[in-house]
Write a structure and sequence with these properties.
The complex is a heterotrimer of chains A (154), B (228) and C (222). With 228 residues, chain B is mainly alpha-helical. Chain B has 7 helices and no strands. Chain B has one domain. Chain C has 222 residues and is mainly α. Chain C is built from 11 helices and no strands. At the B-C interface, helix 4 and helix 5 of B face helix 8, helix 9 and helix 11 of C.
Chain lengths: 154, 228, 222
Amino acid sequence: MSEPAASPDDIRRGIGARRVLALAALTLAIVIGFLAAQSLAGSAVYYLTPTEAKQRNLAAGQTARLGGQVEPGSLRYEPASRDLRFVIGDGVSRVQVIGTGAPPGLLREGAGAVVEGSFQADGVFRASQVIAKHDEVYQAPPPGATPSHRTTSP
Amino acid sequence: MTTTYYPRVVRGPRILPYLAGATAIVGAIALFMALVWAPADAVQGDVQRIMYVHVPAAWLAYLAFVVVFLASVAWLWGRSPIADAIAVASAEIGVLFTALAIVLGSIWAKPTWGVWWTWEPRLITTAVMLAMYVGYLLLRSLSSDFERRATRAAVVGAIAVLNVPVVHLSVTWMNALHQLPSVLRPGPPALDGRMYATLLVAVAAFTLLYAYLLVARVGLERARRSAP
Amino acid sequence: MRLRRAWLVAERDLRAERAQPDGIAAAIGLTATLVFVESLLVGPAIAAASPAIASALLWIALTLGAILAITRSFDRELEDDALEGVLALPGGADALYAGKVLAATLLLAVVSAAGIALTVLLLDIEVGLPAHLALVTLVGAVALPPLITLYVAISLRLRARALVVPLLAVPALVPQLIAASAGSAAAIQGDAAGSLAWCALLFATALASAVAGLTIGPAAIE
């Protein structure tokens, strides 16, 4: 491999050209990645919304994770039988959820929840795990009110 | 023939006691504000106060890893030994703070979310970030030659910083359990005023702690290198 | 001209491989063994129910096979004492890194073909879209080598290399592996749009890691 040594100008030109190429490749990568991620917005998700779950027509017994809001008026927990029921919705669709065991302390009506489990044949979602989700807003309680959260689980 | 060894007292950089004092003072103020002065959250109650350690730990981990990146680039550029010392010091502190953030987050998650851990975007990306920097430290510990170790580590340190924006933005890119950022986001902070003030003081305390640990560790590294 | 030098390095590698195919033999051997044992542990029934499992196992096996092949390729340089010579030439480190990545990509394409064939056979998988699966695999063969070559290059003379390289490379390859695994699973299930989208994401990660590798890699070869 015998070649005349590159002159300093050649080297500088080479490095400059390489930088442009690297930048172009990176930009291309970012653009492609962004577009691909957009079209992939449904797959590889942590949870599906009830609407997405219905669209996918999940088979009974197939493990899935749903995320949404707990519908006001739907949350019931029976300590004696450890039967937990509530409806999870996203403003468009709603799914009835049945679980066993005490709900997490933060689970409340109107707030977020994520449930893991599978659909039963009758369209009810049987949850093996119920997780409460809270949003990023932190506020002081109104004067005189005590915070509503129970940190000790029954 | 017996040889007597005199213990070597390594006096650290002179600024160290002042940094320690500052950290202690600001830390005490932050502790008071976090436990007493700031209001409890309207929804979560007092358990929310763990935010005042969990969030600063995470933010300072980000900062530490960015410093690792800058120090790594500085080494690759100019081969200056102090850059390598700063890189290893900052990486160790970053790993410590990341682990702390994960543990504190887990403790916060159990009473609020209901689980210790789940495979959601923020937790996954943070765990991957921790793995990469533990790999960084392992690579360093297994290298013996000074120059080679510094170069190897600098390569890893320069690449692994990409974790930082990925960890932070992961919750905005996809459906996640971890809530969206309350402060580091476009728009005003979604925090009560007193909570925000407390958080800022806590971040200041953690920053002083980072500075203290960094200076101490860099001093230790230089002492080790100059030791016969 | 730089490309030509890189190609020369790659060509030398491939020729050496053809003369003494211990690198590709080791990679195919390891990948095949892993796929075999994984298939044994999982079984066709579970793999059919969840193509994601078969894909994940395949790509983990391919990653480890790639690490082996690239390590072997650099070892050949060390054994022939050719490393200093190549590095001394102007632009030598760049050519060496790029050439190794090029050769590794071609080798990995072959190893992947073997890996997929074995996986489909042992787990009795019906591939919905074979062409899409081939595309994902090809792009994956491009996406893995840059970072692996980078980490092998920086640990050339490290005694604990066999531990350090997988430890560093596998977390760094998480985006590539997620995209490749999900893309393969989508192709198996017959989801054309999904597999192409994952393929595009995989290509983006390939570009990004190639740029990162080419920027830093040459500086780090010892």
